[in-house]
């Protein structure tokens, strides 16, 4: 029987090392699919731990630990990400990023450090379980098409498919020592929208001689709000936002071409496809009606993240046993995206949130930081869930 207190004690003994790993990764961040130093650093540690591994998707790593309690058994995969964001850090930490304009502002350094800590705990307890624990260190979560898809496209498990795959992600709003979970749909699909409007530019004082691309762009932005407010079924969460508008004219110059860039998020794949058609139709017809050309490109991104209900019930129960029932929170739907959804489309999957106790240090912000004691929870919970699942028979 796997004892929770044995895991907690092992994590406590390793905690300084886990913090050191996190701080090293935080100090040396790398952007999506450029995680060469990060991958080499983790590979070196896995060698030191005596854990077998292989490279996948260039900078990704798949490691495995086989239990020695008996032959056969099931398998579980634990996943963490490696990439950082194009954000200029403003934390003032002693281990602040040394790379200008690059920062671990989404906690991937925390996830990787917790997974490495869990690898050591699980390896030290390999005689107490049967089956296999896979450790996934994934590149490129922040950039389409997503490192999860690239790893799957390379047939990373080579036919030895996991019975369950789990990921955890920091959440500043939850207290240190807490975790959050939700069954079924949890996070939205996400697509990138690019629209170019073209026409005859000219002098701003004589708009009647031009195609006023800026005014047409504005009309398209307003018209497209109908996607969420009128066309979307009321029971399906939907968001369409534009965050980049490029005109490039001047106070008295109407440009020939203007560009819109935005994001579309929803929780339903059928409506997602329909919405793509409506976005294209509204933009092109609005532009044509006002005398402009219009090109619409929709780059399809991550699918809806779906937590397997049966496995989520089990994980929720195990969380309560390890943390205490009062430390497990029910999560609301979230319109952010996560490429772990690619794994969840192929395998029974559970994605949960790890409380980091700093609600003022929000994800993707230059000030993002965590209470490092959260890594006691993150490392312990990863280890407990993996070993308990392998021994549960459920």
Descriptive report:
- With about 400 residues, this protein is an alpha/beta fold.
- The protein folds into 2 domains: about 5-185 and about 305-390, Aminopeptidase (3-Layer(aba) Sandwich), CATH 3.40.630.10; about 190-300, Alpha-Beta Plaits.
- Helix content is about 35%, strand content about 25%.
- It is built from 10 helices and 16 strands.
- The protein has helices at about 5-25, 35-50, 110-125, 145-155, 215-225, 225-230, 270-290, 310-325, 340-345, 375-390; strands at about 50-55, 60-65, 75-80, 130-140, 165-170, 180, 185, 190-200, 200-205, 240-245, 255, 255-265, 295-300, 305, 330, 350-355.
- It has an 8-stranded mixed β-sheet with strand order 1-2-4-3-5-16-6-15, with helices on both faces. The protein has a 4-stranded antiparallel β-sheet with strand order 10-12-8-13. A two-stranded antiparallel sheet has the order 7-14.
- β3 (about 75-80), α3 and β4 form a beta-alpha-beta unit.
Give the number of DSSP strands.
16
SSE ordering: HHEEEHEHEEEEEHHEEEHEEHEHEH
CATH class of the largest domain: Alpha Beta
> Helix segment count?
10
The structural domain count equals: 2
Largest sheet: 8 strands, mixed
Radius of gyration: 24 Å
Overall shape: it is elongated
Strands of the largest sheet, in order across it? 1-2-4-3-5-16-6-15
Which superfamily, in CATH terms, is the homologous superfamily of the largest domain?
Answer: Zn peptidases
CATH topology of the largest domain: Aminopeptidase
Q: Termini separation (Å)?
A: 15 Å
**Considering DSSP H and I runs of 4 or more, what fraction of the residues is helical?**
25-40%
